[in-house]
Amino acid sequence: MIINLYNNLEEEIKFDYEGIINTFEKGLEEEKEVSLILVSLEEIHRMNKEYRGLDRPTDVISFEETDEEDENYLGDIFICIDKVYEQAKSYEHSNEREFAFLLLHGILHLSGYDHIEKEDEIIMFKKQDELLEKLGFRR
């Protein structure tokens, strides 16, 4: 996996997100590529409202690549670092575990998984748990 990182934040990120990205690049065997854009709470709120019609911030949004010329490029993943901190605290696990979860969640969406229907949610979350375990990001 190739992950192109774009950090759009001015403030320092207080955990080793680059190490997590490196782990994903080495641990996911697929010859696929994504762009990962780190954004503020305000930016993800704007995007969620504009693209999903939801007037609130979210944690991760992914946009599938529609240009069929590059079959290895899956699309773009936007992660809100403020939400990483908030949710890690709420779920009582590390920022690293939360970031890894959100990154993998975005990758799985771009790979065709979703959780709209209960049956699909079971499949996606099982895959998510298996891969997080494999990559060393346990609960």
Structural class based on helices, strands and sheet pairing: alpha/beta
Tell how many strands the DSSP assignment holds: 4
Going across the major beta sheet, what is the strand order?
1-2-4-3
* Cα end-to-end separation: 23 Å
Number of helices: 5
Oligomeric organization of the protein chains: single chain
Mean pLDDT: 93
C-alpha Rg (nearest Å): 14 Å
In terms of DSSP E residues, the strand content is: 15-25%
Q: What is the H-and-E element order?
A: EHEHEEHHH
Low-pLDDT windows of residues: none
Helicity, as a percent range: 40-55%
What can you see in these coordinates?
The protein has helices at residues 17-27, 41-52, 81-91, 95-110, 118-135, and strands at residues 2-7, 33-39, 60-64, 73-80. The protein is of the alpha/beta class and 139 residues long. The model has no long low-confidence stretch (mean pLDDT 93). It has a four-stranded mixed β-sheet. A hairpin with an 8-residue loop joins strand 3 (60-64) and strand 4 (73-80). Helix 3 (81-91) packs across helix 4 (95-110) and helix 4 packs across helix 5.
Question: What is the structure about, briefly put?
Answer:
The protein is of the alpha/beta class and about 140 residues long.
